[in-house]
Amino acid sequence: MSFVPVAKVGDIPEGQVRIAWVEGHPVAVFNVGGAFYVMDDVCSHDGGPVAEGPLEGFEIECPRHGARFDIRSGKPLSLPATAPVAVHRVRVVGDAVEVALGVGDSSAVGSGDEGGVSSGSASESPSPVSPDETPRNENENPNTQNPNGSATASPSDGVAPSQQEIAVRSALEGVMDPEIGLSVIDLGLIRELHFFPDRTLVRMMLTTPFCPYAPQMMEDVKNATMGVIALPTEVEIMPDAWSPQLMPDPSLLGFSY
Question: Is the pTM of this model over 0.70?
Fold first, then answer.
């Protein structure tokens, strides 16, 4: 691909971004620390524009679902995005910022700081559980039930799970997050299980606050749990912020944070 001028150096102040079209393709041209970086203006999560979101250092946040990307490499830094955004070569010739489409990874972006090029350069750049089976934590008496009369299990308790919890969690391995393609168990979204004589309460998290699949996931969790415990099940969404560190195996995402 040949280089195409997209702006003058002075058109993009430091810390700002400009959207340009190169051969009918939308790209975002960033100026960070006096160096320019170019990536597709297309979020790999939902296909919408990404550069309209806030830019902090080398990180751009998609304004719709909060996925963040490294503008130097296009690498996803947070869910719900799991795939990178394409980055492109950039160079400055005189006072013109020029872009060439068709670069693969961060190692091939060009010269400079992982592909950025400075202004002034010409570089390219199963049975019910009794309340005392699962203690809340290691400091509690194993024979003391929770104040609400339920048996509670949490991934962070550090105690052996009951047979009932094992069965429920096994069933929940079949409940997938459609945005990411991993189960609610793999993602660490199921935080607490409360077993009552007349009902089950599942407390779970979401990977993003505005997950459009939340109602369906809650219904799937409810049905999977009731498939193990023949009692009404309530699913409660916790307000806590999720992070990959809550996953049993974060490497399942295919990239590191």
Answer: no
